[in-house]
């Protein structure tokens, strides 16, 4: 059996978050909220040196910038994995000017900011945070005098609900262009059916099958949609990243997706993540799934501007 390598490893350095977004399961997590132990974090990074890793994300079900050790952790990743792309996600509210200054020179490749709306009242209702503080942080981040020294690429993200007005979506895009960042408007994921989302379960393979997601306690979970680690693959405190990724259970999921059995395997049969995986398959299957992906995006418009539901 030929070993496979994950293209991405996501590490939940903390599962605490300062926001309370209803479309994210963090506020309803049943497992204890804790930062990842430093020795476990460093062990994972060392495991990732055993194979050519394309990208690493110190983020999963929490807000990285409420982790008091996030800057040293980023420094450690860059020292030990200098050729791996380093990506980071944040809601921006805890990304203070002091923390932004701490990112200078770390070589972060891509920073995603989940902003979601420019309406202060909606922001407060949806995220439980104050928009004024977040926008001040983002103005500091995108200031031309420092932004290129902080991060190579910045994306501001809006998760739109079925009721999000088109004017609000367009205002968000205009704001992003003014700040010189990439706008990204995306629909709701349903987290295995636990979050309300009208998008159907796709038939094509999910891109999550080629990544490895590690919870703050060391559990390797099925993917970022399995926020409680119910469908676990192993424990990185006991086995290496590469061993777990090539475990029989992990291979079973990848094979099911690649053989058009996504809708026949639990819990993928009720999860509507719509990013496709077109890797490690014969050309005819790649063509088949590429066509079904194109049809899905044309039919349901899971990302980009979309009129609110009536």
Question: How would you describe the overall organization of this protein?
Answer:
The protein is of the alpha/beta class and 310 residues long. The chain has helices spanning 38-47, 70-80, 97-103, 120-127, 131-142, 147-150, 166-179, 241-245, 248-258, 283-300, and strands at 8-11, 55-57, 85-90, 108-114, 151-159, 182-186, 211-214, 219-221, 234-235. It has a 9-stranded mixed β-sheet. It is globular.
Briefly, what is this?
By secondary structure, the chain is an alpha/beta fold. It has ten helices and nine strands.
Secondary structure blueprint with pairings:
Layout: E1 8-11, H1 38-47, E2 55-57, H2 70-80, E3 85-90, H3 97-103, E4 108-114, H4 120-127, H5 131-142, H6 147-150, E5 151-159, H7 166-179, E6 182-186, E7 211-214, E8 219-221, E9 234-235, H8 241-245, H9 248-258, H10 283-300
Parallel strand pairs: 1-2, 1-7, 2-3, 3-4, 4-5, 5-6
Antiparallel strand pairs: 7-8, 8-9
Helix pairs in contact: 1-2
Offer a few descriptive terms.
310 residues, alpha/beta, 9-stranded mixed beta sheet, 10 helices, 9 strands, globular
Query: Order of strands across the widest beta sheet?
Result: 6-5-4-3-2-1-7-8-9
Shape: globular
Number of helices: 10
The assigned structural class equals: alpha/beta
Low-confidence stretches: none
Largest sheet: 9 strands, mixed
Distance between the termini: 52 Å
How many strands in all?
A: 9
- The run of helices and strands is EHEHEHEHHHEHEEEEHHH
Helix content: 25-40%
Amount of beta strand: 5-15%
Average of per-residue pLDDT values:
94
Radius of gyration equals 19 Å
């Amino acid at each position: 059996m030929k070993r496979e390598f994950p293209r991405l490893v996501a590490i939940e350095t903390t599962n605490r978050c300062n926001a309370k977004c209803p479309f994210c399961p963090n506020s309803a997590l049943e497992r204890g909220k804790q930062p990842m132990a430093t020795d476990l974090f460093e062990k994972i990074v060392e495991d990732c040196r055993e194979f050519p890793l394309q990208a690493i994300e110190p983020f999963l079900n929490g807000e990285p910038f409420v982790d008091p050790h996030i800057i040293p952790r980023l420094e450690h990743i860059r020292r030990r994995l200098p050729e791996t792309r380093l990506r980071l996600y944040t809601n921006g509210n805890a990304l203070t000017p002091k923390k932004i200054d701490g990112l200078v020179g770390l070589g972060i490749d891509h920073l995603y900011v989940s902003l979601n709306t420019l309406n202060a009242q909606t922001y407060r209702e949806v995220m439980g945070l104050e928009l004024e503080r977040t926008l001040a942080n983002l103005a500091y981040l995108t200031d031309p005098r420092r932004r290129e020294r902080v991060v190579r690429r910045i994306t501001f993200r809006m998760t739109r609900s079925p009721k999000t007005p088109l004017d609000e979506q367009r205002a968000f895009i205009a704001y992003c262009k003014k700040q010189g960042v990439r706008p990204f408007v995306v629909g709701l994921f349903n987290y295995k059916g636990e979050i309300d989302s009208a998008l159907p379960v796709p038939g094509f393979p999910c891109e999550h099958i080629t990544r490895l997601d590690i919870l703050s306690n060391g559990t390797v979970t099925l993917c970022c949609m399995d926020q409680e680690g119910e469908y676990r693959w192993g424990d990185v405190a006991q086995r290496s990243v590469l061993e777990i990724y090539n475990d029989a259970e992990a291979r079973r999921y990848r094979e099911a997706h690649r053989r058009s059995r996504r809708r026949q395997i639990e819990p993928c049969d009720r999860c509507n993540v719509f990013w496709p995986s077109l890797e490690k398959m014969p050309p005819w299957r790649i063509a088949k799934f590429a066509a079904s992906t194109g049809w899905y995006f044309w039919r349901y418009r899971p990302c980009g501007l979309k009129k609110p539901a009536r």
